[in-house]
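Help wanted!
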Amino acid sequence: MTAPTTDRARGAAPTGPVVLTIDDVSVDYLVDEPVHAVRNVSLELARGEVLGLAGESGCGKSTLAYAVTRLLKPPALVTGGRIEFHSREGYAVDLTAIRGEDLRQFRWDKVAMVFQGAMNSLNPVINVQAQLEDVFSTHRPEMKKAERRRRAGELLERVGVDRARLKAFPHELSGGMRQRVMIAMALALEPQVLIMDEPTTALDVVVQREILDEITRLRDELGFAVVFITHDLPLLLEISDRIAVMKEGRIVELADARTLYTRPQHEYTRTLLSSFPSLTGERGAFVRTGVDTTVPGPAAGRSTEEPDQGPDHDPDEHEEADA
Amino acid sequence: MTTIELRGVTKDYRVRDGMRGSTLRAVDDVSLVLEPGRTIALVGQSGSGKSTIAKMLLQLERPTAGEILLDGKPVPRGRRGRHAYRGQVQMVFQDPFASLNPYHTIGHHIARPIQLHHPRLSRAEVTERVHDLLRRVRLHPAATFAERRPHELSGGQRQRAAIARALAPSPGILVADEPVSMLDVSIRLGVLNLLGDLQRQEDLGVLYITHDLATARHFSDEILVMYKGVIVERGPADDVILNPKHEYTRLLAAAAPNPERRLAELSS
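Answered by r_m:
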């Protein structure tokens, strides 16, 4: 699955101690014609790093996340491979073998998840406080009520929501605030790995930026590792240390953010990169192709770029970036 | 050739809050002109009033103050006037999964507006037009796609069918409200380029509503930045993006993911 020799130079290997090992994992959906959703994926997640997982709908990125959190239900089946969690305390947990009470205790405590469409995954008839405290009463049954209450307030403040909103119901909060509550809930037990599945997709750019800054700040503060799943490659390029590009269930390219952007190797990565017009630079791939250059039309006020200039990711070209 | 002008358009909504009521000004004194062959991008955050402008352009909402002029004349009141107006102004909606009726074939979606706006055409002529439109949005073979229902199409194909539907009455103005935000990234540019091609062929005036500044810049001639119902900045696309004057435009530009900025940070 990986390119053999250049891996090290391209920053494909994790840089520190590993917290999560995904080794040759495959997931099938056993329907009439079995769907191979994830095929022989191997990944290592370093402690405290942000790993971006990019790909389009149906490429298997969410299925992989669900395999790691052991949330897959039939007809999905992990058909092979090993997923191992290496705790800070020095023991390893085989995530494919763990079950029952052990699994219940492990989930959320060590690996937590922010779900896709998190805006709608809060319970609409219970207030935020009860939902946050629920995490503690399930996982820390010895904790006193007053302590739970205090922690719930702290959590909200940590993600930048006023403690006074504890009594609010989800419908009384804006989309961005609901998303923050979901992140607070995922952080409640100070997990070592946080999996975020399209956490900002439904939000507008300004709110998205606030949430991303929040995630980066919390990561620096608490030192958890993040697997950030999205199809928005420019966003990943900005926040990730390393990026894995997934297509049809396989990881087709894995490199550090900079290498992936400046020297993409796989054809598909190039396609994805050229799918996003650059905000400030001149990216040749995106021009209104065929703008009538022969007849000065009414749209001639704008200069038209060369239509056959190929996709180009040379950073030197973008000197006007962020003027 | 159709030109549409909004002149000092304002829209207030009554908001009820228990016993009291208050007024929310969704759009405040907005003027803009949509001309053949030009694309205007309307950018702004959720709730800034972008879609309210689209609704007023389509006569789904009536402005509280100000005028909407079609070729210099006010939009006629009454059914017949609205009918003629809608032959000229059409819309592509955001979500191609919701904007097509699952019970109807793609062909039906496109034939209906043709029949409504060109009642004299024979059935064979309508079918011919449907197939022609499908070919123009590159759904080949047209006859096969006309028979299919929305669930048999991918997201991109559905959005192209929705574009064909919008073009069916041969309008002069097209309003596209986030036409690609629900689509997979690798096909977005294809759909935008298709819209651009069709615009040139038909000499359409396009209002492109989006919160994606990057495509707004590359896809349009002029950009209007909207904040809380007010247009805070307007100008040629490159000017607005590369030299933003208004605080809010800068905020939007800074919020958009920008790999080049990160690259510069990593290098320094």
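OP: Thanks! One thing I noticed: Chain B has a mean pLDDT of 89.
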